[in-house]
Specification:
By secondary structure, this protein is mostly helical. It has helices at residues 17-20, 23-50, 71-76, 81-88, 90-122, 129-137, 144-155, 160-167, 183-207, 211-219, 224-235, 237-252, 256-261, 269-279, 283-311, and strands at residues 53-54, 61-62. The protein starts with 16 loop residues before the first helix and ends with a helix.
């Protein structure tokens, strides 16, 4: 029986991956749905409250959305008085600036302390690296609030630090350490609490470093300190940037540490926000503070990421 070799071969059918596996769209949609429900929707609610006026009612602001039938009337009552007040009052401007100052200094301190730790972990033996990582995350096994309260017992005038200095002769029996309720105590509490958030991204970046690059630099006569600045540090910049952002953003809005360890002069936007919400019950003004804080943090980060994508 003859076989027709000239007959065209059927083209392979390529299945549409979207139709073949509809669940993949669900996997993609879940993160966006999460952001919509727990970020975008609360943000729009806060933004709306920030354009409202304070009222002695429940909720303590007006206007309240009562349906789409009064949509035009509802929007006509919104204004920017709270934002104008924030721009004219030096207290809130100082709160923002002081929060950014404390966050920036704390981030630099965290980088100076965390980078050597992460470098030592990355250069340790492979067998003990999991143990070192576990030691870094070990403080997370206890409550954050309890750990901050422990620093009160250490830093208070009659606390453990005073007893230690007196026992080794650095202080007299009548002298006491005066650190609690100062900015120094705030820096200590922040650095202690956020150090794992700086170490882990740095360790992840340094662990991937190709050690043959350092060996080649050494063979070519490059001193260790120069090899660090020319090879190790540039290759670890993604970890530096990630750790700095992970620490800087929450530190700016930190409330618990300044409230427990700081004094009356420790002015941060987190404490100001809490005061307006719960003490003064001025929800519109507090919402305006939160919106501005979010803009101050998100806009520069989004711009930086856009520039990084263009450079890439």
């Amino acid at each position: 029986m003859a076989i027709d070799t000239l007959s065209p071969k059927p083209e392979p059918v390529i299945a549409d991956p979207g139709r073949a596996n509809p669940a993949r769209w669900l996997v993609v949609a879940i993160p966006y749905l999460w952001l919509l429900l727990f970020f975008a929707a609360p943000f729009f609610i806060i933004a709306k409250i920030s354009l409202s006026d304070t009222a002695i009612a429940m909720p303590p602001y007006t206007p309240v959305f009562e349906g789409f039938g009064k949509f035009g009337e509802f929007f006509s009552q919104l204004d920017f008085e709270n934002y104008e007040f924030l721009a004219s009052d030096s207290l809130y401007i100082k709160s923002y600036l002081n929060s950014l100052r404390i966050a920036a200094i704390s981030t630099v301190l965290l980088l100076l302390i965390g980078y050597p730790m992460a470098l030592a972990m990355a250069r340790a033996k492979t067998s003990i690296r999991p143990i070192l990582v576990m030691l870094v995350i070990l403080p997370f096994w206890t409550s954050f609030l309890i750990r901050v309260y422990a620093w009160i017992g250490i830093l208070k005038p009659e606390g453990l630090l005073t007893l230690l200095f007196q026992s080794i002769g650095l202080m007299g029996p009548d002298e006491q350490v005066q650190i609690l309720r100062t900015d120094y105590a705030v820096f200590i509490g922040i650095v202690y609490s956020y150090l794992p958030f700086m170490v882990l991204p740095l360790y992840a970046a340094l662990e991937k470093l190709d050690n043959t690059l350092l060996e080649a630099a050494s063979d070519l006569g490059c001193p260790p300190w120069k090899a660090f600045w020319r090879i190790t540090f540039p290759l670890s910049l993604p970890g530096v940037i990630a750790g700095s952002l992970i620490c800087f953003i929450p530190i700016t809005g930190e409330f618990v540490i300044p409230d427990l360890l700081g004094g009356a002069d420790t002015l941060m936007i987190g404490k100001t926000l809490w005061t307006e919400f719960f003490n003064n019950r001025d929800w519109p003004l507090a919402s305006a503070i939160a919106v501005i804080l979010l803009a101050v943090l998100v806009i520069p980060i989004a711009y930086f990421q856009n520039q990084q994508q263009k450079a890439g």
